[in-house]
């Protein structure tokens, strides 16, 4: 016996960070954050993590900042595994929900392949919560009975065109600002009505949140004129119509903050 303590393996928890404000984390995510040795964070979701963890916690930002080279996914996977192999409790903080376009599945698979204990805590996805922040219920009874969630950069598939054409379906587009002209052009060519309402919600749940309302016919011009930028969620469908809930819809806001 040397008396040396064996380096036991740590663990990785992918936690959903929600759309931004720290109080949109689940209690489970918060508890894991308070017990973390290492936090690996993204550009979206809560970015003020330093204020919410102890001074000894290592906070690593692998976020994709425009104009900077993002940390490749492989390197993120390796980082999670390496820190856990060092015996650390690693929290991988992801924007929104880890399994909605967040490549969370790949990170879980990498941990499993390396024999690292791993778990996932769901988060509030921007796909639902960002429209909500603009007063848009993505499945408003009698208006929309289904939601089709797509990522903008992918090609516009037949399933997406069918969703856009169906006036009882809400189409929610993430990462869609750059791809908007192509999506709109494909939709119009496929016979989607030009008066289909569109809402673009930028920086949902942040103080500088902004909503641009338009229709398929005019959204490219309107978005250009407004200078719409990522992060934004684009909602296509009748639920995106202004005044759906009441004229000049205005939610009361959170009195707890
Ligand atoms: N896993 C995340 C999505 C990651 S993809 C989730 O469940 O929310 C990144 C895209 O999410 C962005 O390009 C944008 O379309 C959207 N997004 C995330 N947070 C947002 C926010 N606060 N406001 C607007 N869009 C947001």
Layout: helices, strands, pairs:
Blueprint: E1 11-16, H1 27-34, E2 38-41, E3 58-61, H2 73-85, E4 89-94, H3 104-113, E5 118-121, H4 126-133, E6 146-151, H5 158-165, E7 169-174, H6 180-189, E8 197-202, E9 210-215, H7 219-226, E10 232-236
Parallel strand pairs: 1-4, 1-5, 2-3, 2-4, 6-7
Antiparallel strand pairs: 7-10, 8-9, 8-10
Features:
alpha/beta, Methyltransferase, Cobalt-precorrin-4 Transmethylase, Domain 2, elongated, five-stranded mixed beta sheet, Cobalt-precorrin-4 Transmethylase, domain 1, five-stranded parallel beta sheet, binds S-adenosyl-L-homocysteine
Description:
The structure is a single chain. With 257 residues, the protein is α/β, with parallel strands linked by helices. It folds into two domains: 11-121, Tetrapyrrole methylase, N-terminal domain (Cobalt-precorrin-4 Transmethylase, domain 1, 3-Layer(aba) Sandwich); 126-256, 2-Layer Sandwich (Methyltransferase, Cobalt-precorrin-4 Transmethylase, Domain 2). The protein has seven helices and ten strands. The chain has helices at 27-34, 73-85, 104-113, 126-133, 158-165, 180-189, 219-226; strands spanning 11-16, 38-41, 58-61, 89-94, 118-121, 146-151, 169-174, 197-202, 210-215, 232-236. A five-stranded parallel β-sheet has the order 3-2-4-1-5, with helices on both faces. A five-stranded mixed β-sheet has the order 6-7-10-8-9, sandwiched between helices. Helix 2 packs across helix 3. The N and C termini lie far apart (55 Å). Residues 19-20, 44, 94-97, 100-102, 125-127, 130, 174-175, 201, 203-205, 230-233 line the site of S-adenosyl-L-homocysteine.
